[in-house]
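Example 4.3 (complexes with small molecules)
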Amino acid sequence: MIDIILYIHILAATVWVGGSIFLFFLGIFLRDKEAQKQVYLHIGPLYGYLESVWLTILIITGLYLFYHFSLDNILATGMPQKLASELTIKLFLVAFITIATIVHMYIAFKTHGKERTKLQLFLSRSSSMAIFFLNLLILWFAIQIRSSL
Ligand code: HEM
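Answer. The structure with protoporphyrin IX containing FE bound is encoded below.
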């Protein structure tokens, strides 16, 4: 059973992280403004729904793994110290990425097909940048936790 949960967790991570990297690079390398507008107009909502489902799967399967390995005890006692700090960092990063995703999706759905204000543009770009970099960090800490278990 635990192998299946870990498999789903890693599958969800590949879809979630892969999608965020793809869209991030699309924003940078697709320079044609009209093409960019069309791409986001058509795939934006689909991508948004799909990715939020995978993030939810990541959190649910992550919580299962967390209790399966009794990591709540490790957080409570702070021992072993290395694993406890890796876990704390990963959980904080996941909390930040969830907030950044909510901000990003809120603006995306509110302004879909409309012009954005400067503040909306800033929040949308900074949250997508945050999602991209936080993902790279989360992957790093996920691997550290795995080797400390
Ligand atoms: C954006 C969210 C997340 C991403 C991208 C992510 C990614 C990953 C990846 C790639 C692994 C496998 C590491 C390896 O086998 O070397 C992993 C393992 C693990 N994750 Fe996550 N994770 C996320 C959220 C969570 C959450 C919210 C929790 C707990 C509440 C969690 C708990 C765990 C645990 C305990 C493992 C270790 C299980 C094992 O390797 O046997 N993860 N995660």
